[in-house]
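Worked problem 6 (solution included).
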Amino acid sequence: MRLESLACKNLIRCRRRNSFLLLGMVLAATTVVTLYTFTRAVNTELANTFDAIGPNIIVYPGHQGFSYGGVVLPVKGEGEFLPNEAVIAVKNIRQQDNIARVAPKALGLAEIKGKRLAVVGVDFPAEFALKKWWRYQGRRPEGKDDALLGGKVARELEKAPGDLLAVNGRMLKVAAVLEEQGTEEDGLIFMNLFTAQELTGIPGLSFIEVAAYCTTCPIETIMAQIRTALPETRVTALAEAVKAREAVIGRLNTFTYGVGAVILVLGGLIVFFSTTAQVRQRVREIGLLRAAGYRRRHILEIILTEVLLLGLVGGGISYFLGINLARSLVPALTGMDLVITEDYLLAGTSLLLAAGTGLAAAFYPALRASRLNPALALRYL
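Solution. The predicted structure is:
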């Protein structure tokens, strides 16, 4: 009789005895699959949300001038500017699906109440979508003659929402005032991009802030494609944003890997002790096989084949249970409505995980079983 057939018959004949062994494999592998699926879904959502709420790439000319957000940029008369069409070029790169927000800016100086103050022309819808942490008093700017004042400059100019503000002889309406944040933005006056270009004579864009989804495409790839689309520019990643994102995702992954490792060890212990107990209960069977001429390697192969078959069945069950548990847990625990799709690679990994854990844990008990003395069978004859 072939060893594989003998192993299958033993599994069928001793269903109750093997059910606990199968349960241990299923519990361990299901937990790992659920954790992995859960973490992967949350990772994607966290990474995309993190990328979408702040810039992680800046596109700018290579000349120095005004400092904004730690990046030195040109102002009128100090260097070249990006053309307005650069925004379209960034949005149309090959990895355009990885671009969450594109926020162009034009920096300049304007005469306001006898002072030369810094003004920033922006696309307000893109700017507010990018800077979700902004808090302000007043209404959100919409029109070409609306202005948004930083908290510090509003206090210096004694302006509040609803007041008029003369900028280079043109009257703008203060739509809102930002709460002070302790950054350069506190001293800036934001207005419509084209209005700022018209009032300050800026011929183009000073720089472009880009929020890119880096989950499915490395940020270096996105930067390279922007450089190709705009060869005359410099493209820089904001290290702080990238590092912060990696730290958040890294901590979550570390927790998941740690819990998964503990679960696998516990599952392996269940398999180990179950297999050891089975070997003690099968002394008669193993002794008779040895007396019938089966060699040590045959006994080892029979027991490991049984564990392997149980592991494959357990891996299949674990994948099905793990995916469906994750689909239930993610919305319940996170409040995120995430789509968890079938993953054939994960299904294969689940099979290998359950089978590999079972084989590793059962090897020593199986090896001990293969070394039983055939003379033990004589007491059962």
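Discussion: The chain has a mean pLDDT of 78.
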